[in-house]
Structure formats: C-alpha cells, structure tokens
Design brief:
By secondary structure, this protein is of the alpha/beta class. The chain is 40% helix and 22% strand. The protein folds into 2 domains: 235 residues, 3-Layer(aba) Sandwich (Rossmann fold); 38 residues, no CATH class.
Length: 277
C-alpha cells in the first residue's frame, strides 16, 4: 500500500481555472520525492490536497489507502505535515517555542510530551537558541527553520515542503539539503518537496515527478528524467549541473558508477584519478 496516492485528481479554482488535471501519483514510505515544475505548473495546489487543505473537484487523494475526507482530516494531518513556501503563512505565535508547540498541543498531548517534541524539533533544526525569540523579528532563513521545526514536532510520517529553498542563502540551502536527505533513513519519514531549482534534485530525491500545466508530464529516477531534454524543455526546466557533467563524461567514454549526489560523484572521480596514477 502506498502512503499517499492520487487517482485522477482534478481541481479547478473559482472561475473555471484548471489547476490540476487527472493527476496520478503513487508515493511509498521512506521515499524522497521531488515534484518539478515552473511557476504555475500546479505544485502548490497538488500539495494542498495531500493534507486536505483543498478538496478535489473530481478524483481522489488517499492516505494509507483511505480517501481523504472531512471525517478523517485530523488523522490525515497527523500523518502528513506541510511546510508552506512562505513561513509567514505558518508562524503566528508570540514566541518560537510556543509556535513549535502549537501542533503537539492541538494533538492533545501531555505537557511533558509536548516539551520533549519541541526540544527535539528545535535541536534537529539547530534553532534552540531561537526559542524565546519573537517569530516576526527573525530572518527569512530562521523563519524557515522554525516552520520546519513546527511540522517535525508533530512527528508526521510524511513531510511535504513547498519550495523549501525559497528565501535561503547558499549555506542555508546546503544545510537544508543535507537534512532532508537523512530524514527517510534516520527518522523513517517520507519526504516530498517541490522546486523549480533543478540542482537540488540530485542531492535529495530518488524519484521525480515533472508537472506541466497541471498534469504529470513525466516521472522516473533523477537519471532517467534528466536524460529527457524534450521533457525538460516542455516544462521550462534546466538540466542540473551534475547531470550535465555526468552526461559529458559518459559521452567521452568515462563511466562514473556513483550515486546521484555531488559528494558521491566527487569520491568516484577521485578514485578514478587515483587508479590512473
């Protein structure tokens, strides 16, 4: 059974604007899923269906094999936690500590459990020093950390991040990338993130969906997707630097047998160079 599935998911905004058209996705536990697409492709609208913020015009969203309905919305949101693109849409409490505690408190957890979850979430995001700060006085990167900590404190099985690198400086992007990569293996979470910054994908994802005009235009592993120039051009996306490098090396007769991350490729290149000396 897939942890999240969509079946012919269609959604139209008022005025007849079709944002999603017959979207079919299958997401299994512990996966790292990238949803690629340019602005307006439907990524945010899709994600809002995963946790029941929006209701399909037609089709279904299933979590643990059960259709998302108003009756099971509370259980769905225990399973699926969403981090919005703009943290100001998510952070509203007087202090960081209170904001991170909001979700666990609303789950009806006791004070000791809430305190433990807040401490752990802030530790994971290296944001413990912010706990007494006022959220609206934080930097963009600090707000992003707090928003993610608030979702982690709910201990969801799936964390959904809409354009997680938005507003982060290069160091913040590197730290976030490393953290997201570890979540499935270390904490058993499924990670789903959207982006139009293709260079993030090889570092994090093991499977990719490409969206175009509210539809799934293609899917596959990062290696498979980034060999499809026609697909990427149609979706107005670039080929990641790493994918271009690997393709160039292979066309030159140098076969790199490595994973998709930059560190894996670097290690493999160094090994090949060492073998030639």
């Amino acid at each position: 059974m897939h942890i999240i599935e969509t079946r012919d998911l269609t959604y139209s905004y008022p005025g007849g604007i079709d944002a999603l058209r017959s979207v079919n996705m299958h997401i299994h536990r512990h996966a790292r899923i990238a949803v690629l697409g340019s602005n307006g492709a439907g990524k945010s609208t899709l994600f809002s269906h995963f946790c029941g913020i929006l209701t399909p015009t037609s089709g279904q969203v299933l979590v643990h094999g059960e259709p998302v309905t108003k009756k099971n919305l509370r259980e769905v949101r225990k399973t699926v936690g969403m981090v919005f693109q703009n943290p100001d849409d998510q952070i509203f409490s007087p202090t960081v500590e209170q904001d991170v505690a909001f979700g666990p408190v609303n789950l009806g957890l006791d004070d000791a459990t809430v305190s433990h979850r807040v401490d752990e979430a802030l530790r994971l995001m290296e944001a413990d020093h912010l706990r007494k700060r006022t959220p609206h006085k934080l930097s963009g990167g600090e707000k992003k950390r707090v928003a993610i900590a608030g979702v982690l404190a709910m201990e969801p099985q799936v964390i959904v991040l809409d354009e997680p690198s938005s507003g982060l400086d290069p160091q913040g992007v590197r730290e976030l990338t490393g953290f997201l990569r570890t979540l499935p293996d270390t904490y058993g979470m499924t990670v789903i993130f959207s982006t139009h910054q293709v260079d993030l994908v090889p570092e994090i994802a093991d499977y990719v969906y490409v969206m175009q005009d509210g539809m799934i235009a293609g899917e596959g592993t990062p290696d498979e997707i980034f060999l499809r120039d026609d697909l990427l051009r149609g979706a107005r996306l670039d080929v990641p630097i790493l994918a271009r490098l690997l393709r160039s090396l292979r066309e030159s007769g140098i076969r790199i047998d490595a994973g998709s991350s930059y560190s894996d490729v670097e290690a493999e290149l160094l090994r090949l160079l060492a073998d030639k000396t």
